[in-house]
Structures are given as C-alpha cells and as structure tokens.
Amino acid sequence: MSKFKSLVTAVAAVGFMASTAAHAGATLDAVKKKGFVQCGVSTGLPGFSNPDEKGNWVGIDVDVCKGIAAAVLGDASKVKYVPLNAKERFTALQSGEVDVLSRNTTWTLTRDASLGLNFAGVTYYDGQGFLVSKDLGVSSAKELDGAAVCIQAGTTTELNLADYFRQNGMKYQPVVFDTSDQTVKGFEAGRCDVLTSDQSQLYALRLKLSNPSKAVILPEVISKEPLGPVVRQGDDEWFNIVKWSLFAQINAEEMGVTSANVDKMKSSNNPNIQRLLGTAGEMGKLLGLSNDWAYNIIKQVGNYGEMFERNVGQGSALKIQRGLNALWTQGGIQYAPPLR
Amino acid sequence: MQSSPQPQVKPRKTGKWWNDPKIRGIFYQVLAALAVAGFLWYITNNALTNMEKRGITTGFDFLSQPAGFGILQSLIDYTEADTYGRTFLVGLLNTVLVSVVGIFFATILGFIMGIARLSHNWLISKIATAYVEIFRNVPLLLQIFFWYFAVLQALPGARNSIEIGGSAFLSVRGLYIPRPVTEDGFGWVIAAFIAAIVLVIAYVKWDHKRQQETGQILPVFWPSVAMLIGLPLIVYWLAGSPMHWDYPELKRFNFAGGIRIIPEFMALLVALVIYTGTYIAETVRSGIEAISHGQTEAALALGLNNSQRLRLIIVPQAMRVIIPPLTNQYLNLTKNSSLATAIGYPDLVSVFAGTTLNQTGQAVEIILMTMAVYLTLSLTTSAFMNWYNKRIALVER
After folding, report:
1. What is the ipTM score, two decimals?
2. Are A190 and A209 in the same domain?
3. I want to staple A304 with a disulfide (CB 3.0 to 4.6 A). Which of A253, A289, B195, B358 is the partner?
4. What is the per-residue pLDDT for A4?
5. Which CATH number does the domain housing residue A201 bear?
6. How far apart are CA A163 and CA B245, in angstroms?
7. Residue A340 within any structural domain of the chain
8. Does A140 contact B at CB distance below 8 Å?
C-alpha cells in the first residue's frame, strides 16, 4: 500500500515534468468534455466523506462535490470520487488527478500561498480536540503530560499538537498513522492514551469504537480549523464556480429555499430568490454556466442547512450542533456574499 | 604450412578523418550523451516552469525552516523547534538503524535455517523447510501488519505490562528495558574491551602461525569469548563498578526512564528479518549444495569432524556462491524497510517523504532526495559486498 503511495507521489512529480501549463478555464472545459467531476475525498470519515453500506459516497464533503456537478453538468450524480489520505491529497490536486479536493482540509496560509492552491470557502468551522478513554480519569487536556498521542500523518493537527504541548511545557509521544482508521485502531489497542483530531472527526471516529460510551472528548479546543474545498491556482473560472456553488447553498438557506420548496420558489417575486434560481438576471452566464445552475444544486443536493443536518447534524448519527456553523443571522458565522 | 609474415596494418593516414571508426565512435557517444542531457534539462526545466506558473514554491530553502512536528523515535536530539533538514537526518538514521539491525539478524537466521534444511535430522530439516515455504510466500506488507496489529497490539496496556525479570516491561507501548548509565572511570572498561580485541587478534594470529609450524590446533572460540567478556569484567570490578542502571518506572500514562523499544520498530524488524531470512536460507542452501560431494568425502578422509568439515571446507567454498545473491537480499531488506510507513515507524519515507513532504508540499525536491538516499545506501552496501566477494574469491593460478 505504502509503496503504491510513494508511487502515486512519484508519478505526480513526473506529472509536473511532462504536462504543459494550464490555461484559465481549462478545468471547466475538461469537466464538460469528460462529463463528470473528479473529486478528491477522504479514505472514510463518517459525516464528511464515507461510503455507505451500498458503497455510495455520502457526507458533507461529498455533497459539495455533488453541488459542483449539479451546477456544471446539471446532474449531481456525475461525480467520480478519488479517496486520498492526508499525505496524498495536495499532490493529487496539483498534478490534476482531481478537479477539486473536498476532503476536510484546513485552510492555512502556508497551504494557500506555497502549494499553488486556492481555498474556495469554508464548509465547516472546526477546531482540534482530544479524545481519551474514560478509564484514565482525565478531565482536561492540561493533564496529558507524558501521554502517547495517536495522530494522522500530514495534517495541521500534527503541528497544533506540538505547539500546544510545547506551550504548556508538557511532553508527549506522537504515534503517527496514515489513515484515520488506523489511528482509531491504535487508540483502541491502547497504543496511545489520546486520539487527537478535529472535533467533528472525533465525534465521527468515536462512533467507530467498539464501545463509544467508554471514551470522552475533552472540553479544550486548541486550534481553528476552517475546512473547505480546494482547487488549483491559475484557473480563476473554475475557482469561482466552486466558490459560488457553496455560496449558493448558504444563500439558499438564508432565503429559506430548500430542495422541497425550490420548484414553488421559482415563481417567487423576491428578486433575491429570482436571481438565485435564474428566473431573473444572468448570474449563471457570468460564471460560464447555465442560468439554472443554483436551481440544480438546491433541487438535487439541498441548501447548506439541509446538507449539514443530513450528514453531521440531527439527521445523522453524529448529532453535532450547528454552533459556529449556524448562519450569521442565527448566531453562527456562516456567511455568504450576496448573489447579485 | 607456410604463413607469410603479415605486415603491420597501420591506420591509413590518407583517409578522411570522418571515416575513422574511432572518431566516429566518439562522435556518436557524445551525440548520445548530449541527447540524454538535453532530455533531462528539458523535463527539469519544464517541471520548474510549470510549478512556478502554478505558484508552487520550489528550491531547497525549506530545509532550514522549523519543522514544528514531533517524531516518535530519534537517535539524535530532536525537538519540534528543529528544522526540516534535521527531520531528514532523523528519518535517515531510523532507516539505517532498522536496516543494519535487520541485516544482522536476517543473516544469522538465514544461515541457521539454510544449514538446518540440509540436516539429516528429519524434524529439523522439515521445520526449516516449513519456515522457508510459509514466510517466503506471504507478502511482506501483510507480515508487517500481522506482527503489528495481530501480535504486538494484542499485548496488555501499559499498566498491566508483562514483567520480564523484574526490570523489563513488555506492553502494547513497546518494550522498556533498563538503561546503563556510565559514571567516571567507565573509560577504563572500554579501554579493557579494546585491549581484549587486540589480544584476541594477536592470539588468533599466533595460533595460526603455530598451526602452520607444528600442525597442532588450539581452541580459539571459547578463549576469545572469555577474553572479550572476562577482561572488561575484571576491570569493571577493579574500577569499583562505575555504572548504574536507570530502571523504567510506571508514571501516570506510560513508563518513563530506561530504554524504550517502540512496537513499530519491533514489528518491522521481526517481519523484515523473518521474510529476508527465508531468502538467505535458500541462498545458503544452494551455496552449500553447489559444493561437490567429493569435498565432503575428502574432508572425511582427512579425519575432520562434522563441525570442522562445515567450518573449514564447505562454508568457505560455499561463500563464493552465496555472496552475490546475499548482496541482493541485503539491498532488498534496506529498500523493503520503507514499508515502515504503513505502521507508522518513523523511517525516512514516513517522516521525510511523508510528514515533511506534506507540510511543505515540495514533492519533487523531497522525493528526489529520498530516492538519492536509497540509491546511496544500496550502492554503499553493494560496494562493500563486492569488495568482500573479491577478497574471498578463488585465487586462480
């Protein structure tokens, strides 16, 4: 497996050598030509991107991909998923193996500025937390001096953890695995005392434990982890499409447009809704899409709130509160620029 | 038959220089070299241009920037504040460690099993055969997973560790053993050990000379062992035992103190040793079988006993057959150690071509450096084995 991974990276490296420079708009043309969106997702994280019992990919990150496919091709099912671990994800995007990376990826300056990538918004505001076994009797992360900590390789988590322990004058042993599944296995076997990751992931990973009630998530949140879709730099047209697909979903929630009432809303006389659904104005055209692009997203995938509740909120096994991810009008910080 | 003396054919000076085969040869070689260099220049330049266009940082500046992540096992001092360049060293040393220790044990295991397969004892030879056939035919990655997930992760937690001799502890967190801490005066013990080595070499040389002159053989092995262990021990006692042990102690989460051998290392080492051992066993067996039976009969006729026959007649000749394929196995083991990343052993691929690559995103530079390291390690091993092979090769007269 790991040989294969090195191979992927090496091949990607060679990819740079052989390919010629991309021109703006190349991604949209390529996607239309091949008839599907190639989307990089995780190797399995409940709520975000995870195959269900039938083998279909589901999750909030998956729905972002579906939204893009609905906007561009008019059909949310026209997505091909490429499962990537944390180490492979950026190379896969850089080398053109995927059109968009929607894989619970944290937006940071280094990634934005030095990898040749652009973050196209925030699907989920997260923060790093700690999962410990109840038997340890630990109630705060400050008591973790000397603990062995399971982490996934190649994440911001790895860096935050080091910073946090150093700041608090504590020592730790990092036990680094390639996939989040392996970190759970290591945690269950007792290889480490603590499992650290973004809090949303911890809720998801706790479900994978054989006895979830024996583990608790500590109250400390030690970092900011805004997660969102990523595209290659240098193709602004595609960057805009990915950005505005997500904004359309957030705006739709704000206007009260859902997948259930979107057809009825088409005859609404609210100019905002008319612009969103393409019954007035030429918003889609400006993006290089058809004018019913946002209608397709909402009809087939739903608005942001629907997407959230279905995958990680009350309609899911994770039951995560909206919290920071509520709309700005409801005490959260999810806010999209106006569609006009 | 009469043969007329052939006049010395001199290259004709009269021909055009471009008809000279020598000059033509050089011309085509230069042409080929230029084509290869041009191609390399083209793809490198193309890669750099493309990466620059896409806004990807290139160059080796990242090596001096702080890494900011922790590493589980390091042979040199390493903290999160150290540079990416240092993570390269840490990873490299971890790779070298598991390769060297792996080669050492795989060689021992392979030789024992290879010889055991030829044993006349039915049980011993069948055990060796079963070992070779089972472990040679299961993929190495699965074996690593087996040792790590099925065996080592099934061990009890740190608080219920298995105690070995009251001072070593085995748990899912690894093996904790006491660490010797040297005090003033330990230098004498080291000096005694070096002196013992010199003495052993001198003794062996003297014994050899004596054997040439008188034909008598003195025991070598046990006196050497006695000298190597005994002399330092006596000095240690005379110097007033200048050493104490740092015992591992159970703290809140883990053991602290002592030496910690992490389970990732153990699993990788066991898997590499057992897997490579099968190939070495087969190599050894084929080497021994290549020696004609006449050699054994001749040795019997001279009255050599079993162990002498193996040690003085068979193995030295078999070595000539064994060494070249053995080199291959050493190289394989070193390269296979990169599977470490599958279970999180912090080797070069896991730390440098894994975490560092991901944090900096400079795939091309890092993969090139990593490939260069494996190439260097392999070429070094190869050069050493070639030198050894030449040394023991049959001197033909």
Report:
1. 0.76
2. yes
3. A253
4. 47
5. 3.40.190.10
6. 33
7. no
8. no
Q: Do A163 and B56 touch (CB under 8 A)?
A: no
Closest CA–CA distance from residue A60 to any residue of chain B (Å): 24
> What are the extents of the domains in chain B?
84-159+261-392
pLDDT in tens, A108-141: 998 998 888 999 999 999 999 999 998 888 889 9
- For residue A38, give the nearest of A91, A1, A90, A83 by alpha carbon: A83
What is the number of structural domains in chain A? 2
Whole domain around residue A173: which residue ranges? 128-223
Using CA atoms, how far apart are residues A243 and A225, in angstroms rounded to an integer?
A: 18
For chain B, the straight-line distance linking the first and the last C-alpha, in angstroms and rounded, comes to: 34
Domain B84-159+261-392: CATH class, spelled out: mainly alpha
Angle in degrees, CA A238, A243, A247, rounded to 5: 145
Residues of chain A with pLDDT under 70: 1-24
Q: Which residues pair with A195 in a beta bridge?
A: A131, A150
Tell whether A186 is within 8 A of chain B (Cβ): yes
Contact with chain A for residue B250, Cβ under 8 A = no
Q: Considering the entire predicted model, what is its pTM?
A: 0.81
Is the CB of B80 less than 8 angstroms away from the CB of A19?
no
In this complex, which of A114, A136, A185 lies closest to B361 when CB atoms are compared? A114
